[in-house]
Design goal:
The protein is mostly beta strands. The protein has no helices and eleven strands. The strands form two sheets. Strands 2, 4, 5, 6, 9, 10 and 11 form a seven-stranded mixed β-sheet that branches. Strands 1-3-8-7 form a four-stranded antiparallel β-sheet, with no helix packed on it.
Length: about 120
């Protein structure tokens, strides 16, 4: 079992910065990937950024160059450093973790933290 606790959401003006954090607790030793997603206008969850515990972060095209994802040394917490925020970045951001199970991997989601970018 893994629980994901998100923090850092809030309101910011365009061009500003904000940092989201997601801390996993529970069976964190089995985490394979962690990342952030946000809904598209069609309500599909779109990748913002993710990383495997052994790899380097990958980013959605719309945020690449502006956002940076980091994972702590314990492989249980990620920070999303969001820079040069745009109005279109406004969304509820959801933390995701893929956790190795005995037979198959399990997907966990945080409850979401809202980010509002407005002038």
């Amino acid at each position: 079992q893994v629980q994901l606790v998100e923090s850092g959401g809030g309101s910011v003006q365009p061009g500003g910065s904000l940092t989201l954090s997601c801390a996993a607790t529970g069976s964190t030793g089995s985490i394979e990937t962690m990342g952030w997603y946000r809904p598209t206008p069609g309500n599909e969850r779109q990748l913002v950024a993710y990383t495997s515990v052994a790899g380097t972060p990958s980013y959605g095209q719309s945020v690449r160059g502006r956002f940076t994802l980091s994972m702590d040394n314990a492989k249980s917490t990620v920070h999303l450093y969001m820079n040069n925020l745009k109005i279109e970045d406004t969304a509820v951001y959801y933390c995701n973790a893929e956790v190795a199970g005995i037979v198959h991997d399990l997907t966990y989601w945080g409850k979401g933290t809202p980010v509002t970018v407005s002038s």
